[in-house]
Amino acid sequence: MLYNKRLYYVLIKAFFYSENYFEIAQKFYCTRTQFGLTLAPILSHWPLAYRTFVNFSNDRISAIYLGNEESILRSEQDWLNAERGARYRDAVHIALPGGEVWLFDYGIAVFWGIDEDERLALLHRLNLAEGLLTKASQEHFRFTLNAPESRISQDNISLAQDDHLARLAISHALAQSLKLNEYESQAQQTIQDHAHIPQTLAETGKIKLSRRNIAKIRGKLFSTKSDIILHYGLLDTPEFFWEYPEYESTYNLAARYLEIHPRVDLLSKKLATIHELFDMLAGEQNHQHSSFLEWIIIILIAVEIVMFGAQELQTLLGW
């Protein structure tokens, strides 16, 4: 009896003073059968998000790019206020009756085992309509828990353990892959939209654009490049693994399968192409400005010569 009281005391103290109280509770939850149902009254009142043993309704994973980061942050706070969410670095864990959702701060949601209807309901809560989501903004996988080994093959993810942090590690890679898709498309579209500029320069030796139009294009190129570079850190190994390095191998498993690092290198080359195009337009704009100033100087000199000649002619003729 004294031992049970100590367990209650440890749990209550952990609940109020520890930032990782849900992990402490998980350990007691795993071993509570040793003490009968003595811990059941406490654990039954814990928020649903902290019960990491989820009964999944299916074996499907859906990673969706939502694109509305402000809406994501508001929804995360709503879940946390309702004690249905657990905050991790860059992500919030939401446990639902038939699965779980990982909401990432940069606009990605990863659904594990969630039925279609429940997924649509959550998307609606995030102020998104299914019709606005394109095939390019989602990826779908299947998963198996408690497999003989952790591996990924043909979009089937097998995990050797039923661990919510292992699923978070996989979700990090899936979210990064979708975010990388967005950046790749954005950079590729920018290059294609302005591919005619270097081609025209190669054919005619000059760019037939006004200084104003060149300034607009430079603004678009700079906006695209800066937007990607400002969020480039999202494509690096997540800071979550500083606290949980034992799960980094699980993340690397998914990152290799999704070819995140080679794609990041390719994105860097696309950004370099955009930078070269930006520099070329800057040079052309400076050239046009210099030419404009040269013509002004030539015209002023010509006017001065004409005025000087007129004065000399007036002197010679005695006018």
Automatic annotation (TrEMBL):
Residues 101-267 form the DUF155 domain. Signal peptide: none annotated. It holds the Pfam family DUF155. It comes from the Bacteria. InterPro entries: DUF155, RMD1/Sad1-interacting. PANTHER family: REQUIRED FOR MEIOTIC NUCLEAR DIVISION PROTEIN 1 HOMOLOG. This is DUF155 domain-containing protein. It comes from Paraglaciecola mesophila.
